[in-house]
Design goal:
By secondary structure, the chain is mainly alpha-helical. 43% of the residues lie in helices and 10% in strands. The radius of gyration is 15 Å and the shape is globular.
């Protein structure tokens, strides 16, 4: 539940920052997945156009970001949050 709450707060902040960029309001278009795309020229739109989000995490802190030696992948809360945000905006 805390993850959902933090995700909602993050998107509210991103939405407020996007609204303050001084550009004229644009009606969002719907991409293939049915999710609204961000306004042209915004950072969020650049991420959506690229098709991936690049996130840096510290991977030496247990439960937040830790390199799993058996899979050689970073796992933890920070990684899960990044994946949820990417799933939402992409």
């Amino acid at each position: 539940m805390e993850t959902i709450r933090r995700t909602v707060v993050l998107f509210v902040v991103v939405g407020l920052l996007a609204a303050c960029n001084g550009a004229a309001p644009v009606t969002p278009t719907l991409p293939k997945k049915g999710l609204p795309t961000a306004a042209e020229g915004t950072l969020l739109r650049k991420i959506q156009d690229r098709g991936k989000i690049i996130v840096g995490v510290k991977y030496d802190v247990s439960m937040f970001g830790l390199l799993n030696p058996s899979t050689n992948k970073v796992e933890g809360f920070d990684v899960d949050m990044a994946k949820e945000i990417a799933n939402y905006i992409l």
